[in-house]
Design goal:
The chain has 213 residues and is mainly alpha-helical. The chain has helices at 23-37, 44-51, 55-62, 65-88, 94-109, 120-128, 133-159, 169-188, 193-208.
Length: 213
């Protein structure tokens, strides 16, 4: 059996074109845009310019604009969870653990080349959730996840005798989350870090009550 060959000296044709972008980097660029402007104010032209990808490439890699938004928000949630999970699981006293959680949160919310970014969930996704059930479900899940993480902290502290018997871990967990939300909002409004840290100190004092220092 004779094998067919191409023209002498010719190389086999390669199928497809090599990917000229890094998906993770491109998603990070899209995340920055959506986090700053939200869904409606971020155009496909904006996304194309930021990622260096034309529209067909964007669609091929991430789907339509809504799909890219959802993937960007999920990326934000994954990054935030990774940044906070270790300190939530730490063996520090309740007061020290809360102080560390809020310090990490402030680092995230105050970052950004063009000014403080704040929290995607509270300042961007919550607004876009009004008209999109899928985004709304993600926001509700994010809020619930944070409530539960704080509640576990307070439940453990109560078991260790750091809080009075009458303390309600669930209610304290919601208060812990509310403090996260307020510093995120104020950070986006360019409130100085010292003022945000004062809010945190007062909130931690209220939540800890007679907790060990």
């Amino acid at each position: 059996m004779v094998q067919k060959t191409g023209k002498p000296g010719s190389e086999p044709k390669r199928r497809g074109r090599p990917r000229a972008y890094e998906p993770d980097v491109a998603l990070g660029k899209a995340l920055d845009l959506f986090r700053k402007g939200g869904f409606a104010a971020t155009s496909l032209d904006d996304l194309s310019a930021a990622t260096g990808m034309n529209r067909p490439s964007l669609y091929g890699a991430f789907g339509d604009k809504r799909e890219l938004y959802i993937k960007s928000y999920q990326r934000y949630r994954d990054d935030a969870r990774a940044a906070l999970s270790e300190v939530f699981r730490s063996e520090l006293s309740l007061r020290k653990r809360l102080e560390r959680i809020y310090a990490v949160a402030l680092d995230m919310y105050l970052s950004g080349e063009d000014g403080p970014k704040g929290c995607f969930t509270v300042l961007t996704a919550a607004s876009d959730a009004v008209h999109d059930p899928a985004i709304r479900a993600m926001v509700i899940d994010a809020l619930s996840e944070l409530d539960k993480a704080f509640a576990r902290c307070f439940r453990l502290a109560k078991d260790k005798g750091e809080l009075p018997e009458a303390a309600d871990p669930v209610a304290l967990g919601q208060l812990g989350s509310a403090t996260i939300h307020t510093i995120a909002l104020r950070a986006r409004a360019h409130v100085p870090r010292k003022e945000l840290e004062a809010i945190v100190r007062n909130a931690v004092g209220v939540m800890c009550g007679t907790a060990a220092k």
